Structure formats: C-alpha cells, structure tokens
Amino acid sequence: MMCLLFQHGQAAGTAAAYAVLAGKTPQEVCRSPEDVWSVQQQLLRDDQFVVHQINHDPRDMALKATVSATSEQDGSEAKQVISGQTRAVYGKGGCMSGQCLTGSNRWISEGLPASITLEWNSPTTIEQVELVFDSGLHRLFTFSIKKEDQDRMIWGKPMPETVKDYAIEVQSPVTNGWVTVLDIKDNYQRKRVHKLKLTSKYSALRVTVTATNGIENAHICEIRVYPQDQTGKFPMKPSGLMAGESRVGPEQPIIRLATPTQPQAWFTGPDIPVA
Known about the structure:
28% strand, disordered C terminus, 17% helix, 4 helices, alpha+beta, 275 residues
C-alpha cells in the first residue's frame, strides 16, 4: 500500500508541475492525450514504472544508438539498457501479460571490469547522461517489526547490485580517441544524472564499471543521452506515434504493448525472471 501511495503521489505532483508549466488546469491536462503522454514520459524518465508505457522520448539519443558491451549474459544483453523499461515486473505478483516488457530490462556483464558502449552513425553533442542502476528491487524492503522480515532485508548500506565505481568516456569522430569526462567513486544511488555540457560532437559514449557494492557483475538498467539544449522536462509527443508503440533499438522490430482496445502483445527478448 505504501508503495502505491508513493507512486500516486509522484504521478500527481508531476502532473501538477506539467499543468503549471503548460498554463492549463488539471482537468485540461487529463482530457488531452498529448499532455498525458508527456506526463507519463517524464515519470518514466524519473524511474517510475507506468503500465503500458515505455520510453519514447524523441530527444533521447541513446534510443538511436547501436549498443555493445565487453561481455553480457543471455537475457540481459547490452541492448536492454534502451528497452525503455527500467525494471522487471512480470511473473508472479507482477503485471499481467501484455502490460509490460518481459526479460530483465538491464545489462548484466559476465564480470568486472566491464564496459558498455553507445555508438552513433552521425556524431552528436552530449549535454546530459542519465543512468539507472540495479538497486535490488526484487528484495524485500519495508517497515516491519517482524524479525523474519528484518533478517531478509539489507539495512543501512547500499544494495550489492548497485554500481559503485564507474567512468564515462566519449569518442572523438576525428581521432577515434577516447576521453574520460567523468570518474565516479563510491556511488550508492539508483538514478544518476550527469550534466556533462559537451558542446563538441562525439561518435560514441562508453560507461566502464570497475566495482559494485557487493557482486561481481555490472548491472545497468537504463542509459539516456540528451544532446545540447534538449534536456528539459516533459517531451512533446512525436507526430505519428501510436499509444503503446516503440522500438527496443534501431535494428529491432516494433514492440506494441497491449491496450484495452488492443489485446495483442509482441515482445523481444527471453522470458526469464530476475533473481
């Protein structure tokens, strides 16, 4: 119940902020499919889960990239960082079939150190990079006085799956050389937003994980890359985009999430649970 209340509060606050910025009443926002879409997309960007919705932000250059990694596990390939969904929510106790993407929706490496690379056919500016790390959402974490619950939880320290040390590099399209623009140590947060403000254009971006807070594999759920002057809140819905339609990557077939008037669902990736 508390989780639901937190989610509803975040959604209400986000919608209220949109209404103020757009100069509309809450009723006007609710009646506009385009406005609702923008609010839903902002919730996804803020690491919320929205039934039937995945990332369609047209400004996110990661969705236009070819993704590769130094190593990957079956069902948790590098391309999963642009699946548009930042968690696994299917299976027992999760969403009904057709309401979400299956699979792990994260990249998991075979070991450490490990790197994941996003490459573009046309070089792009990079003003902001947003990362979502695995924070053990499968693990029980609640307020409870029951000893058996407390013994199952991890209190007072980072989740072992969460990336601890990592670096972000960019590649020049002229020299093909890599330049380190950020080196982070002792991270414990799930969502990180890095304002790089790089005005030159780059052909690739690489994230290298050298340590986690307890396990021997890198786990990254999502990478977003926003170009110069395209980092604002609430994206505008692209013309021609249908509700529930997107692509996992530039080479992947269309994914169509089920809606009340469209019960079918096609997904890519293996149907495996996340431990």
